[in-house]
Specification:
The complex is a heterodimer of chains A (214) and B (79).
Chain A lengths: L2 H4 L2 E3 L3 H22 L10 H24 L10 H12 L12 H24 L17 H29 L5 H9 L1 E3 H7 L9 E2 L4
Helix pairs in contact in A: 2-3, 3-5, 5-6
Chain B lengths: L4 H4 L4 H13 L7 E5 L5 E6 L4 H21 L1 H4 L1
Antiparallel strand pairs in B: 1-2
Classes of the chains: A mainly alpha (214), B alpha+beta (79).
């Protein structure tokens, strides 16, 4: 294969998906900073920033769910028996295994964990908006019973604590030397043809080749 | 004024357990929940205790360090 052919690029993430990823990441980091810094003793007016970032994240997630359901294949991130078998054999094998489809078991697992945790945080956070004054309504602290609010608070806090661990792991794995090509693909959209042929089973991820620097 | 602290500020079951634990062992057990009292004097849960934050943080640190160490130790085999 000619060197120019080897250097050709395979699109992994469209611009709209990369924009969703980085905007969501920004919103999550703002939410975590405004939630956790006051706990660590750094006091500032965090409530407005927190709920505005929460609404931005909710809109982004709604957009992603609609896009993934209609214009993409939602089964791409479904964990099947084959994923579990491949994950198990990759764990037992000492050699660097092929990923197989577009996403590995680990990538599907972290995506689905983020989905559960972020949906929990957003849903409970949306309910908690009832207890603060916004431009659209006045606060109503008695809308639900104390027991219901307790469950909502505990779920919201549990989701935020889980996010601390999950964001740490996500950033660590994104910065692993052998995974930097994936970080590049999330920044610029593409992986090289060589990386595609080396890491992926082309019968399971038939990627479009994109000429030039797209 | 003369009442013991736990009588003046009745707390959640975990806090009562903590009080007993501290009385017996001399150490303070970790609280799982933040609790308060509503306008009727009833105990209400305000959320999870922020004492749990270091646990989630260090869980992340342990996984990262363990994985990095595993990769370093098996680097030769994986090439």
């Amino acid at each position: 294969m000619a060197e120019s052919e080897r250097g050709a690029r395979v699109q992994r993430h469209a611009f709209v998906d990369r924009a969703f990823h980085w905007l969501s990441a920004g919103a999550v980091l703002v939410l975590m900073a405004t939630a956790l810094l006051p706990i660590l003793g750094i006091e500032f007016a965090w409530v407005t920033i927190h709920w505005v970032a929460g609404i931005v994240l909710a809109i982004l997630i709604a957009f992603h769910v609609v896009r993934a359901s209609i214009w993409q294949r939602i089964g791409t991130v479904w964990v099947g028996l084959r994923d579990l078998r491949e994950g198990w054999s990759a764990l037992r094998s000492s050699a660097q295994a092929k990923v197989g489809g577009k996403y590995s078991l680990a990538q599907k697992a972290i995506h689905n964990a983020f989905a559960v945790v972020l949906l929990t945080a957003v849903a409970t956070g949306a309910l908690m908006l009832v207890k603060i004054d916004t431009p659209w309504w006045e606060r109503d602290p008695y809308w639900l019973s104390d027991a219901a609010w307790a469950a909502i608070y505990v779920l919201h806090d549990l989701a935020s604590l889980c996010l601390v661990t999950m964001v740490m792991l996500h950033i660590y794995f994104a910065l692993r030397p052998e995974k930097l090509y994936l970080l590049r693909s999330m920044l610029r959209g593409w992986i090289t043809r060589t990386e595609y042929e080396h890491y992926y089973d082309q019968s399971r991820w038939s990627a479009e080749r994109t000429p030039g620097n797209q | 004024m003369g009442w013991p602290r736990q009588m003046r500020y009745p707390r959640a079951p975990s806090a009562r357990y903590n009080f007993e634990y501290k009385r017996i062992s001399g150490y303070e057990a970790m609280e799982l929940f933040r609790v308060s009292r509503n306008v009727w004097g009833q105990e209400t849960v305000l959320g999870l205790s922020w004492d749990l934050l270091p646990i989630f943080f260090f869980a992340g640190v342990v996984i990262v360090v363990s994985h990095a160490a595993y990769c370093r130790l098996t680097a030769g085999k994986r090439k």
